[in-house]
Amino acid sequence: MNSKSQELADLFLAGNEDQALHLVQTYLEKHTKDELYQLVLTPAMYWIGELWEKNIITVADEHLATAICDFVVSVTEVRRPVQSLQKKKAMVLGPEGEDHYIGLKMVASLLKENGWEVQYLGPNLPLDAAIDSADRWKPDVIALSAALAYRLPVLKKYAEAFIALDFKPTVVLGGRAVSMANLPVSDTEGIIIVKDLDQLKNWIQSGKEPDNDFSISFG
Ligand code: B12
């Protein structure tokens, strides 16, 4: 892990919100937000996960660290008023049972930074409610995230339900479970597998789907 991530993880665990925010804001003077998210915050949280797994820190320590990480991600988000009716729309959510949402917030933030209109619906959203909301708002894209490998079948169920909608949204799948399972590029029309924020940014800016080496049917 790099020294910035280490420093930040220590501040998170010490509950030092002010210093954590200061570090992040200083970093952003010379780096982009996706660098902050992917190169600093993600490794810091993964490190905290390892300490938790090894019982070196308690669940309370992990909750404190997560709350401060959540706070700094929120502070770094830009909220600009909608400037054009042409804006692309994205709905961002985690499927039922999924409690991890920091990655989702980063995805929502990057989409907004690139001029998209975003509805961030958070984690653990039942499929019926998600479908109902999508039907009313008709997003161009629905982005889904899963952190745990056993969530992949639920992700697939959601993705298939969304691509069957009349207005044919593109479904973007990501998250730790997706990148660790090393899911290849999907050849199911309308479903895109995106492994990290770099790939997401490329796709947002160029419209070119990530080329994850080979292609098989999703599921
Ligand atoms: C914080 C945390 C929690 C918090 C989550 C709170 C919250 N607000 O999110 C709580 C306490 C709820 C929690 C619960 C659990 N957790 Co947890 N958790 C973590 C921890 C420490 C950090 C998660 C995080 O924020 N990471 C940082 C974010 C930024 O990373 P990310 O989600 O991967 O997102 C990045 C990319 O994947 C990508 N991305 C994410 N989503 C998407 C979506 C799209 C469309 C795209 C393009 C990209 C993308 O962008 C991000 C930027 O890099 C991780 C450690 C880890 N390695 O992640 C464990 C971890 C994921 N949890 C773990 C476990 C086991 C659990 C529990 C099962 C524990 C339990 N026994 O109850 C439960 C399951 C809860 C559930 N039902 O979902 C394990 C999973 C192990 C495994 N085998 O898979 C981990 C790895 C910890 C560990 N090392 O053991 N957890």
Key descriptive features of the protein:
binds cobalamin; alpha/beta; 9 helices; 219 residues; single chain; five-stranded parallel β-sheet; disordered C terminus; Methyltransferase, Methionine Synthase (B12-binding Domains), Chain A, domain 1; Rossmann fold; 2 domains
Could you please describe the fold and organization of this structure?
The protein is of the alpha/beta class. Helices cover 51% and strands 15% of the residues. The protein is built from nine helices and seven strands; from the N terminus they run H-H-H-H-E-H-E-H-E-H-E-H-E-E-H-E. Helix 5 (102-113) links the parallel strand 1 (89-95) and strand 2 (117-125). Helix 1 (3-13) runs antiparallel to helix 2 (17-28) and helix 1 (3-13) packs across helix 4. Mean pLDDT is 91; it is low at 214-219.
